[in-house]
Amino acid sequence: MADWNAEQYLKFEDERTRPARDLLAQVPTTAPRKVADIGCGPGNSTALLVERWPDAAVIGVDTSADMLRQARERLPTHKFIEANVAHWAPPAGTDVLFANAVFQWVPDHLKHLKRLAAGLESGGVLAVQMPDNLDEPSHILMREVAMQEPWRQQLSKAAELRDTLPKPGVYYDALRPLCSRLEIWHTVYNHVLDGPEAIVEWVKGTGLRPFIDPLELPERKTYLAAYTARIAAAYPAQADGKVLLRFPRIFLVAVK
Amino acid sequence: MADWNAEQYLKFEDERTRPARDLLAQVPTTAPRKVADIGCGPGNSTALLVERWPDAAVIGVDTSADMLRQARERLPTHKFIEANVAHWAPPAGTDVLFANAVFQWVPDHLKHLKRLAAGLESGGVLAVQMPDNLDEPSHILMREVAMQEPWRQQLSKAAELRDTLPKPGVYYDALRPLCSRLEIWHTVYNHVLDGPEAIVEWVKGTGLRPFIDPLELPERKTYLAAYTARIAAAYPAQADGKVLLRFPRIFLVAVK
Fold first, then answer.
1. What residues of chain B lie within 8 A of the CB of A184, using their CB?
2. Domain residue limits, chain A
3. What residues contact A153, with CB distance under 8 A and at least 6 apart?
4. Can you tell me the distance from the alpha carbon of A79 to that of A76, in angstroms, rounded to the nearest whole number?
5. Which of B136, B182, B187, B243 best probes binding to A when mutated, by most A CB atoms within 10 angstroms?
6. Domain covering B6-255 in this structure, CATH number
7. Do A172 and B244 touch (CB under 8 A)?
8. Which of A113, A194, B8, B90 has the fewest CB atoms within 10 Å, i.e. the most exposed one?
9. ipTM surpasses cut 0.85
10. Stretch among A16-25, A133-142, B48-57, B65-74 having the lowest mean pLDDT
11. pTM of the model
12. Which residues neighbour B210 within 8 Å (Cβ) at sequence distance 6 or greater?
């Protein structure tokens, strides 16, 4: 994939930050020494961590140069590291590993969650949130259009970039033996957006990227038009003309 | 139904209180004058409200004498009122109406939510949480067993005591015109319980009551045995022998 576009991602910053806030609210840690924001993106989640624990050493980790540039502008006194979590280990003494909306992109993520949980000191916390929306119309429809001509050949691999997430019981069995406490839940948000085009704008910043990045501009335009038409049919307007984007996310909080 | 049993309800107090905490976390009010805990039960949610807003006048409202007795023991300096929310209006100047796990029992609850939201002053908040679990195995199976002999005749009405909740879009259309801000979401908890019997104990405190209250002791025992056997099949043990009780709940936070 091309690099992430921080500006596109931040178009819905308030709505996108609520899951990070909800995740943070369930982390019981009071005075951590070191905190790592894994997949920190443009630093919106990192800012929440700094606000909650002003005395901790908070670092951000991301694979995207564009995201890291924005994060450094936002929090110039904090350290941001370009790294892929699949090949990264936290510095010794890290008490909180916070991973908001990143592990859905990491192949075999359960293996890495186990590795990170196992590496925590007693009382340390691994807090994870992932979109669990591949079975929502928003995502079913991007695959459905991609399977049609003329996009089929170029996009046949796009749907494979993200795996469907395991059920809560699978995370439970994998992580429970490594923890003293484990909470697993889903929250299904209903984001109020202006219309079908706004839903497309929203997913353009994340889930739609593997589908439109490989396309040249003319194919991209026709793909987006076909996708937008289906979105409009799947998300009918409310009485006030708005649409509700149903968005399920899974949350895991593991305390070592 | 017979009166509520506070002791049965409180068997899972920590787990039952998390939704109330999650609801409260999304109420933006900083310094309310008066706060009403509608359906206060044994006062566990009321205690959260008193802790959050120690300077507010917090009252509790419930239909159950047993619950109110426990609530008064827990918070002896606060006012608890025996009333049905369907025939109750908040005192003037009430800034927060908090209703945790009560409106699912109120017939035509959407009408009452609209009435309460309409009556708020500007900035006032109506915060509601309801179990939305009638389509979960735990509840499908209590109806399934009730439809069989010998319980059929006595329990045919039990399943009608609670309506399936409307979809988020219905609440949105009903409440949005009355509010400046409206958040609607579901959280699906996974309660870790010791086994199928613990699931039965859990629902005995709430959803199972209309099914077992009408039965004499011998029928009740056979009903519970048949129900427990089905629960055991529907909720297989995790690797450590525990079961996960999946429990969806809907949350509404309306700001006038």
1. 190, 244
2. 6-255
3. none
4. 8
5. B187
6. 3.40.50.150
7. yes
8. A194
9. yes
10. A16-25
11. 0.91
12. B1, B158, B159, B161, B162
